[in-house]
Each structure stands twice: as C-alpha cells, then as structure tokens.
Amino acid sequence: MLDFEHKFDAKIGKKAKESIKKSFSALQKERSSGKIGYYNLPENGFSLLEEVEKYKKTNEYLKENLIKDIVVIGIGGSSLGTKAVYELLKDQTKTDKKLYFLENVDPLDITRTLKKINKNRAMFIVISKSGSTIETTSIFKYIMEKYKLSFKSKSDMQRVVAITDNGSALSMLAEKNSIKQFNIPLNVGGRFSVLSAVGIVPLALANFDVNSLLKGAMAYVNSFFEGKENRLLEKAYFYSKVAKQYPINVMFTYSTLFTYFNQWYVQLWAESLGKIDKIGNSVGLTPIHLIGSVDQHSFLQLIIQGPKNKTVTVIKIEDFKKPIKVPKLNLDFLDKVDYINGHKFNTLLNAECDATYETIIDENIPADCITLDKITPENIGSLILYYELLTSAVGQFFEINTYDQPGVEFGKVKLVKKFTK
Amino acid sequence: MLDFEHKFDAKIGKKAKESIKKSFSALQKERSSGKIGYYNLPENGFSLLEEVEKYKKTNEYLKENLIKDIVVIGIGGSSLGTKAVYELLKDQTKTDKKLYFLENVDPLDITRTLKKINKNRAMFIVISKSGSTIETTSIFKYIMEKYKLSFKSKSDMQRVVAITDNGSALSMLAEKNSIKQFNIPLNVGGRFSVLSAVGIVPLALANFDVNSLLKGAMAYVNSFFEGKENRLLEKAYFYSKVAKQYPINVMFTYSTLFTYFNQWYVQLWAESLGKIDKIGNSVGLTPIHLIGSVDQHSFLQLIIQGPKNKTVTVIKIEDFKKPIKVPKLNLDFLDKVDYINGHKFNTLLNAECDATYETIIDENIPADCITLDKITPENIGSLILYYELLTSAVGQFFEINTYDQPGVEFGKVKLVKKFTK
C-alpha cells in the first residue's frame, strides 16, 4: 500500500482543473494510440514472464541449475531499473543467484566486477535497445575474448542472452548465432523499459517475484487511467507551474536500499524533462537523490537555509519487518541519548524521517511524502509506475517530447569522429 | 599530478583581483589564527600516523594480525571521506583487511552489512565528533549486544577504538573503559575531517598508503598558501558571482571508483555553503554528482538542453594503468562500432569524457576540467585539499560561516522531542 501526502499549495482552481483534464486526455491518447508503450508493459509482462519460465526449462545450463552469476551488460536504461529492483528485493528473495552489472567502460570498474564472477557458473545478458551501444558492445566483446566464448559453440551461446529491439544489429547477431533473444517493444524508450524484457528477464532468471512486481505496477496504472490518481496530476501541474522558482526536485528516501531506485528516478526525470519545448525554450527540472538519515548530516543544511529553490519528496517505509532494537544499554556519560534505548531501529529511522519532513515544512519548502507500508514487490511495482506517470504528466504540462533525447546524441557524434577522422 | 583547465569567462578585472586578494588574506588569517584547523591536518597527520603504527604494535589483536574486518561506525563527516579514499585506493593497496561502514540506522542496511562481517576477526571503530551522535551510539550499542562485547573485558575493549573530540561523552566513556581513543582537533569540523584521525586511523589500520595521501595533501595546501593556485580562487570568485544564474554545480567524474568521492564533495559543498549570510539572505550552491560514461545516458540530456542553470566540472583520469582492450572482434551486423576495436577501454572512456566536455562547452555552459594523470594516494590527497580550499574560498566570497550547520540542528531538536515529550 502506498500513501501520498502533499504539503504544497497546488491552488487547483478552474484553470488548473481544465489543464489537468487536458493532460489526462493527452496521456490516455498516448496510451491508446500505441505511440508510447510503457503504459502497457505491466499487462504484457505476464506473458513475457511465461516465456522466461519456458526458457528456464529448455536452456541446458538453467534447467540443470548450473548458473549462479547473472551478468547484465548494459548502460543507462538497460541497467539502472533492474539494479534498483534487485537491491530493494534481494534480501527477501529466495535465490541462489546473484546479479552483477557491467555498465561503465572504466577499466578499473570492469576488472573489479569481473573478479567476483565465476566464468563456469555465469550467464551473460547483453542489453542494448538500439543494438549497438558502444559501451555495451565493447564490454561484450571483451567478455567473449576473456572467457574464450565462441560463437561457433552452441553450448557457449546457451550462456548468452540478448535483449534488444527486434531487427537491431544485436538482434540479427543473436539470430545468426543461436543466441536466445528477448525484444523490447519499439514504442518503449530505454529509461521507461524496466518492466519490459530489460528488467523482467534478469530478475525472473534470478527467481525474483516478478509476478507481484507486475501486479503492483498494473494496479497503479489501471487506477491512474480510471481517474483515481488525481493527486499525481496535481503534483505534476504544480511542478510545471513553479519550475522557474523551484528548478530542483529532491527525492529524500529513508532507506539505504533505495540508493539505486533514487538513481533510476534521477535518470528518468532528467533525461525526460530536460528539453527544448515547442517554442524553443529550454525547460526541465533538476533531480537530486538523497538517502536518510545519512544525508541529514550534509545536504539537509542546504535545503533548510540555502536558496529556496527546491521541492522535496520524502519517501518513508512504515515497517521494515526487521525488529532489531537499540539495546537497553546505559553507557557512562552517554545518558543524553538513552531516550532511544529499547526502541526499534525502524522507529528511530522513521522519527528522523518525520522530524526532517516537519522541519522542511516549517521552512515553507514545498514538500510531499510518499509512504510505503513495507518494501514489497507490489509496492515497488506501483512506485515505478507512479514515477513514470508523473514524468509523463510533467512532460505534458511542459509541452515537450518526453521520450526522446537529442542532447545526448551530440556527444555521440563527437565520439565517433574521434576514432574515425 | 593534477591539471586544471577552465573554460568559463571569469572576467578577472581590477575589482575581481582585489576581491580575490582579500579572500586569500582572510583564508591565511583563518589558518594562522588557529580558528580553522583543517589547513594543518596534512602536516599534523604524519605524527598521528606514527601513533597509529605504534598502536598496531601494542594492540593484542593487531600485532598478531588477527583483524581482517575493520568496521567503521559513523555517519556523514565520520564516514564519507574515508569511504571515498577506501574505494579509490583499495585495488592498489596490499592488504588482507576490509573496511565496512555502518552509517544508517536503516535496519535492513545494518543487517545486510553485518552479514558480511566475521565477529572473531573484526575491529570496531566508533566515530563521532560530538561524541553523542544518535545514529552512531545506537549502532554501537547494538554491536555491543549482538557480539556480546563487554566493557568489563579488557580483551573485548581491545577490539574497539573511539575517534572523537577530546572531552566528549564518547571520549570519557573510552577513558573509563580502557578503549583506545584518537582525537579530532576541536577546530576541525566533521566534513573537513577526513585527514584527521577520522580517516587516517581506519585507513592506516588497513595498511593504506596514508603517508603519500598526506604528502599530496600537504603539497597542495602549501602550494595554495604560497600563492600558486590562483585558478582556484578565480573559480571560487566566479562561482560566487554567478550563483543566481548558475545555482547548480555538477561534478561529472569519468571513473566509477569516484562514486563516494563525489558524494564526499556533495556533503562538503552543500553543508558548508547552504547558509544565511550576514545580511540575512539565503545563499548556497547545489552540488550534483555524476559518473561518466554512465550518466551520459541520462543526466547529460538535461545539462545540454535543459535550463542553463548549471556549471560543470569534468574530472578525467588520464591513465588508468589497466591496459585492457576492446578485442579486435568483428561481430556480424555490428561493424558500425568496429572503429573501437583494438583500443584500450581507457582510451574509449577518455574519448567519451572529451566528447562530453566539448559538447558542454559548445552549448556555452561554464565548465572546467580537472585531470589526474593517474589515481594515486598523492593525487587524491591533493584533490581533497583542492575541494576543501575551494569550499572555504567560495564561503569567503559569500561572506558566510562556512564551518557551522545550524539548519541541521532544527531537525535534531524535533527528533529528541518525539522521544522525550
């Protein structure tokens, strides 16, 4: 269960209501026209999941349970969402498999990660929507050479999976070399793809409860399109209206396990909303990700006393289902902090969360709080959809193309020139 | 060796030069008056290091080399700097010891971290400048109970080290219970304390080359106070002058190993500069930390096409000393990316760095580039001092107290009330 509390003055008058209605229709149209595909990923995920389960029974390594290390080779949208879900749910998942992520072409990072992998028990999942991402293909080539995997060996190719657009270069390579492939719908962009094969396949191969993740996501997207999530649209409207005064959006999550989820949000938000709008203005909102209580000891100072240019969303987990307590131990000279003795760490963390939230509100900083009753696959599925829909809605109010990324391409052109001139 | 290249128009006219001169004098005065102590940490670190080496020979577990897991219990300034240096240098350090960090009171995070630790080979370093940080003392109590450590056992207390201000509650507790303590100079704030006992002790216990780290730091601070680092002051001047137009400072580092270093910078920058100035205005600059090439696939879009409200610092490592290459493997259908074949990953990553930097400059976004010839303890020491001095200099131009954190205290008061009302 998720709860949404808003402590900002959204001033939802007649004009706002009309604007919100228009935005909602536009999102409905995006969905029904089939132009934007992520809305339907939860629903379509169930049959994909069946396909993965079938694959587990036919792949010679998987059916004998020989695979322990699942190595995801992908960057940006091809890794961040999966990493986020993996970190959140791995402790509550019964699995003998670990996921590893090769994202960066940093040679120290590649070496460090590969040290942890046992080649003989590893499966490699190469993920590139376009099929020719330079980081991904380069690391894949390196893996092929390092582990002496041959395209000519049917057995070797049973340890490689490709996830890519149908018809891409990587897709054709897979086709020709008997590599199992799963496809990303063409109408789903990388940063919106976590509930496509991109996330579903690695997570399902590692026995994560993808079914519940999809259920939670589907419940939220249905609820939204049934018109029951007005607060999301009000928040999006507010954010777009105050974008000049509040150009920075802080996500302050009270659990270390959300570290990568927060990063996933940053990617989604930054790349989707930082655009030139249809009359040529640069628009966008700058996302910041913080973890409580750690970042209370640093960034909170800037939020409270620095320029009032930030909105803050606090994410709180009500019940961590981990009843460890601060012992009733009275330490000499430290009686000042004895008030916490006997309380759960859960209670302390949430009291810190509440104290921070109240302090922020006292300073008239626009804030809202999302509460998860607990960390479950369903709740994480819903939260993913919440943020994707929020991003789309703000994009509608900004009147931009939320789904492209022309700015990123400039750098790519320069890169190719450096090697081919 | 570090190189600093600025691609912004700092317009250093007569007025600017005077202002810079004034700021430089003020920083000199801060140092010589003994009011602010971090300037002298590198120099004083060598004798501290000797003390640690002596301690290694007297502690019953250390001298027998029985300790493999060094567990740092600390939050914010008491952990982030150490974590940063640890991650950067651990691969090049000959050690049989690992550092672990218990920062957050998140019960899932505590449980996850403690699963990796073997009690019998562990040493616990409790770090709190004030001596009564609620997160740190609570986790310490939990450790005491979980591992059945007794204050009455001299042997148990040989496995605990306290790092705190002289005279703090934790200091008195250590004194009474025969716990070895190292002190943080009273004139050094938490976020400026990485080169005090806070960082030196855990890193030296794990056999890191702290000597070279200190040397690099000392070289830089001396060079600065000899007046040889004018570019730093020019950058600080520029940042303070354009703070309204460019309220956000992005650090875009091209190496995954800098992940925690970047976070350390964010803490330092946000908590030091987000202040109310002497005429009552909220000032401050908002730091963002990015890792290349990963974040090219996300945040770069916002930098390039979003609002022009950001300055960017690119950090580049010239030589990763890891000659792994993209194999000369021509993959069917993927000939488009064959241009990279045979090149080092080092070359690819740096070409991506250059391409990003050039793209940013093309868009007239104020940018500068810091180049490290390689990741060495000396260079990291210098870079730490560079950022600390830059922070102090911007604080001077803002006319704020760079070293306090009143905003953080508001939340603390609320927290205590929740438990003691």
From TrEMBL, chains A, B:
First-level EC class: isomerase
Pfam families for this protein: PGI
Cellular component aspect of the GO annotation: cytosol
Tagged with keyword Coiled coil: no
EC number(s) from the headed UniProt entry: 5.3.1.9
Pathway assignment: Carbohydrate biosynthesis; gluconeogenesis; Carbohydrate degradation; glycolysis; D-glyceraldehyde 3-phosphate and glycerone phosphate from D-glucose: step 2/4
InterPro entries listed in its UniProt record: G6P_Isomerase (IPR001672), SIS_dom_sf (IPR046348), SIS_PGI_1 (IPR035476), SIS_PGI_2 (IPR035482)
Catalytic activity as recorded in UniProt: alpha-D-glucose 6-phosphate = beta-D-fructose 6-phosphate
Primary residence: cytoplasm
Keyword set includes Disulfide bond: no
Subcellular location: Cytoplasm
Domain of life of the native organism: Bacteria
Active site: E271 (proton donor), H297, K412
Keywords for this protein: Cytoplasm, Gluconeogenesis, Glycolysis, Isomerase
GO BP term, example: gluconeogenesis
MF annotations from Gene Ontology: carbohydrate derivative binding; glucose-6-phosphate isomerase activity; monosaccharide binding
NCBIfam families registered for this protein in UniProt: PRK03868.1 (NF003016)
Family assignment from sequence similarity: Belongs to the GPI family.
Listed PANTHER family: GLUCOSE-6-PHOSPHATE ISOMERASE
Biological role: Catalyzes the reversible isomerization of glucose-6-phosphate to fructose-6-phosphate.
Name of protein: Glucose-6-phosphate isomerase
